[in-house]
Specification:
- The protein has about 100 residues and is mostly helical.
- Helix content is about 85%, strand content about 0%.
- It is built from six helices and no strands.
- Helix 5 packs antiparallel against helix 6.
- The protein starts with a helix and ends with a helix.
- The mean pLDDT is about 95.
Length: about 100
Amino acid sequence: LMDILKTDYINSLLDIYAELLTPYQQEIMDLYYQEDLSLKEIADEKEISRNAVFTLINRVEKILINYEEKLHLLDKRRRIQDELDSETNIDVLKAKLESILDE
């Protein structure tokens, strides 16, 4: 369950912050998190060591988490979606969304 939650979280961060990564970092993360390739499969495909893949993935995960800690875009996206899902009064919704975006 923990792995599924982590994968979901990292995929959510990639949806938001992938463009801030290098193309190579994006590619490796895509192979690991979207294509579900193993470290060995990625290493073989990229002709690098398994450890290099492991190190790169861990480094990029930390970069993504750092972006979220500073920018809070995933948190804001989730809070906005929660408000969109729950609020029926358009004026109240507008005020709540403006408050979230002003943070």
